[in-house]
Amino acid sequence: MKFFIDTANLNEIQEAYDLGVLDGVTTNPSLMAKEGIAGEANVKAHYKAICDIVDDNVSAEVIATDFDGMIKEGKELAKIDDKIVVKIPMIKDGVKAIKYFTAEGIRTNCTLVFSAGQALLAAKAGASYVSPFIGRLDDISYDGLQLIEQIVGIYDNYGYMTEVLAASIRHTMHLIQCAEIGADVATCPLKVITSLLNHPLTDKGLAQFLADHAKANG
Ligand code: E4P
After folding, report:
1. Ligand 1 mean position to 202 CA, how many Å?
2. What is the pLDDT of residues 57-87, one digit of tens each?
3. Which atom of ligand 1 is nearest to the CA of 187?
4. Regarding beta strands 24-26 and 129-132, do their DSSP bridges make them parallel or antiparallel, or are they unpaired?
5. Structural domain that includes position 56
6. pLDDT, tens only, 152-203
7. Ligand 1 centroid to 72 CA: how many Å?
8. Tell me, what's the ipTM?
9. Ligand 1 site: residues with CB under 6 angstroms?
10. How confident is the model at residue 218 (pLDDT cuts 50, 70, 90)?
11. Number of compact structural domains in the chain
12. Could you tell me the CATH number of the domain that includes residue 103?
């Protein structure tokens, strides 16, 4: 399973990368705004800075919602670095844009996916990644994990190459269950990745080992 970090914060990206388990980064316009990144030149420079930290897979989202606008913007984003994956919303022109970029050999991440039907469309258009938002479905009392299971099953049935990128992950159980289901990728905040480290028996066991060592060695 690939781990992506869902943030535009350079320190958090560096921290996750230094842990040695990071395979990529997902950003979105809200995450960029949270870091105060605004204006075309700053946005491009920030994506470049992210690309300079990680080895691959930096999702950069288009703002345009019409086909021509998405193509123009997506091409500009793709020029920043080979690591860029153009993130396109699941709307009619978005599906057309994914098809276009696939033919051009530019990788895409189809975002804001909330149904199996949308995921099927993204795969047929040739998206490199599809991003179902688990947490936002849970927030409205739908089962986000069931959607991941459905999409993994459908893609397996037909051998679609599109990777299932479980997004909007809120806690470690989401991540573990996505791994059990067989999602290809999970994107989550840094705290979800670092929370995987925690177990009280690890802390207790380590304290005991160190205490016994200290006793034996004076
Ligand atoms: C995915 O690519 C999105 O950026 C993200 O996972 C959305 O998460 P949220 O629902 O916590 O905003």
Report:
1. 31
2. 999 999 999 999 999 999 999 999 999 999 9
3. 6
4. unpaired
5. 2-216
6. 999 999 999 999 999 999 999 999 999 999 999 999 999 999 999 999 999 9
7. 24
8. 0.97
9. 6, 26, 28, 111, 131, 133, 135-136, 167-168, 187
10. confident
11. 1
12. 3.20.20.70
- How far apart CA 127 and CA 123 sit, in angstroms, is 5
User: Which protein residue's CA is at the shortest distance from atom 1 of ligand 1?
Assistant: 167
pLDDT on residue 10:
98
Atom of ligand 1 nearest to the CA of 135: 10
Three-state SS annotation for the chain: CEEEEECCCHHHHHHHHHHCCCCEEECCHHHHHHCCCCCHHHHHHHHHHHHHHCCCCEEEECCCCCHHHHHHHHHHHHHHCCCEEEEEECCHHHHHHHHHHHHHCCCEEEEEECCHHHHHHHHHHCCCEEEEEHHHHHHCCCCHHHHHHHHHHHHHHHCCCCEEEEECCCCHHHHHHHHHHCCCEEEECHHHHHHCCCCHHHHHHHHHHHHHHHHHCC
82 token code pair: 């080979």
The reply to whether the predicted model has a pTM over 0.90 is yes
Give residue 210 CA to ligand 1 midpoint distance, Å.
Answer: 41
